[in-house]
């Protein structure tokens, strides 16, 4: 689940926020026929689902669930469309704005959900069959589905970041455990390179992956309570200096500014880098690498702490229904099925993704996946992100800033540039 947000998507978000003619007024409450179906199995029709998972390593599990759904609902046909995660936001906005080509159901990144809802593109779900046993959802993922007090999605998976590392390579360099601080990370990475010839750390030049350094120094992007933009702060300047030092010192290989996610993953899988930052969605792909045919060679540890704390971010994906769907009732049933405790346990057991329901963690399929057990305590202490309509637009300026930083821009100048872009997005914030 790569997290690069394209510039086109960000620009489209701003334009559409002004020109949207969504349907927020037409769907404030579900009709009785939609929310109280006598026999759900008799609902018929075809729905299209835009999935944003990796088609090779994650897609097969979700397609397996679709077959189970169609067996339980023989009169509903699901058209499965895999849309790259870095393209889905812009494509959905364009389709929803034009009124043609939008899917019935979309796998929406948590930061997109409130934005789509604010534009009137999502069907409200309160009181519908799409929302089943809401009290079972974890509080963090559930909060990302709300906008202006209403529910516009259901949580599908949640995630955070950890340090993934090659145990064999670290052991060859003299280390039995992963580094616990950024300072230790630098030392371990340099020792790995000196003693094994392998790059110690591969960086992913992406906004989400910059957040552990920001949070680790006590920084943030926004002060939501006071409607204040705080990206340009001394704490963040210190964090940016740490990142540049990792590269300048040789602890981290100098990353290409494009395709860094693929490059970092390939380096880890092929034994050309000992450590990377990544999340549970990456595990199914990591295990396909030659270094991890023996899964026990992969180490998973909390992200190294800055001077303040270990600051892993929270992320994840929701299931939302397009307000203009021609088959709302079938969409409700599909979302209900795909977000059931059993379906979430299947996804978690197969792929190591973190379920959003408390009860799913008790399922034998989930308990049988050791990776989930490692990630769960990291998730419990992860830093929450603001679920505001502008949240999905914050990544692109930060990505551009990250790229500029590694191209030689000073941390203070980089943060000033991002700050200016944020003020252009959030004009009424100080």
From TrEMBL:
Gene3D superfamilies: Periplasmic binding protein-like II. Residues 1-20 form the signal peptide. Keywords: Signal, Transport. It comes from the Bacteria. Pfam families: SBP_bac_1. The keyword Transport applies. InterPro entries: SBP. Belongs to the bacterial solute-binding protein 1 family. PANTHER family: MALTOSE-BINDING PERIPLASMIC PROTEIN, MALTOSE_MALTODEXTRIN-BINDING PERIPLASMIC PROTEIN. This is Extracellular solute-binding protein. The lineage of its organism: Bacteria, Bacillati, Actinomycetota, Actinomycetes, Streptosporangiales.
């Amino acid at each position: 689940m790569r997290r690069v947000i394209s510039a086109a998507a960000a620009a489209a978000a701003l334009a559409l926020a002004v020109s949207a003619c969504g349907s927020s007024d037409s769907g404030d409450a579900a009709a009785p026929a939609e929310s109280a179906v006598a026999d759900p199995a008799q609902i018929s029709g075809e729905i299209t689902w835009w999935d944003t998972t990796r088609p090779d390593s994650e897609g097969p599990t979700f397609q397996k669930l679709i077959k189970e759904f169609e067996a339980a609902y023989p009169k509903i046909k699901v058209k499965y469309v895999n849309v790259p995660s870095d393209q889905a936001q812009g494509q959905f906005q364009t389709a929803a704005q034009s009124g043609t080509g939008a899917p019935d159901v979309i796998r929406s990144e948590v930061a997109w959900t409130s934005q789509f809802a604010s534009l009137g593109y999502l069907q409200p779900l309160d009181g519908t069959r799409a929302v089943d046993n809401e009290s079972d959802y974890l509080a963090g993922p559930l909060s990302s589905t709300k906008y202006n007090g209403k529910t516009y999605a259901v949580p599908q998976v949640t995630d955070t970041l950890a340090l993934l590392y090659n145990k064999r390579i670290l052991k060859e360099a003299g280390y039995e455990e992963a580094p616990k601080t950024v300072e230790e990370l630098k030392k371990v990475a340099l020792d790995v390179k000196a003693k094994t010839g392998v790059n110690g750390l591969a960086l992913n030049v992406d906004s989400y992956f910059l957040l552990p350094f920001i949070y680790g120094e006590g920084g943030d992007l926004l002060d939501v309570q006071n409607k204040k933009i705080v990206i340009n702060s001394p704490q963040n300047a210190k964090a940016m200096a740490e990142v540049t030092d990792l590269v300048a010192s040789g602890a981290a290989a100098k990353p290409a500014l494009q395709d860094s996610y693929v490059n970092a993953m390939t380096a880890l899988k092929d034994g050309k880098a000992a450590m990377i930052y990544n999340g549970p969605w990456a595990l199914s792909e990591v295990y396909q690498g030659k270094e991890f045919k023996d899964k026990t060679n992969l180490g998973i540890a909390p992200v190294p702490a800055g001077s303040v704390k270990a600051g892993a971010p929270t992320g994840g994906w929701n299931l939302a229904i397009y307000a203009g769907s021609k088959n709302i009732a079938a969409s409700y049933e599909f979302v209900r099925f795909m977000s059931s405790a059993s379906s979430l346990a299947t996804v978690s057991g197969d792929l190591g993704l973190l379920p959003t329901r408390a009860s799913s963690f008790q399922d034998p399929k989930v308990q049988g996946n050791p990776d989930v057990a490692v990630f769960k305590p990291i998730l419990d202490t992860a830093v929450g992100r603001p679920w505001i309509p502008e949240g999905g637009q914050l990544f692109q300026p930060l990505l551009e800033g990250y790229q500029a930083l590694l191209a030689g821009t000073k941390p203070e100048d980089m943060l000033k540039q991002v700050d200016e872009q944020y003020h252009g997005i959030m004009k009424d914030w100080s």
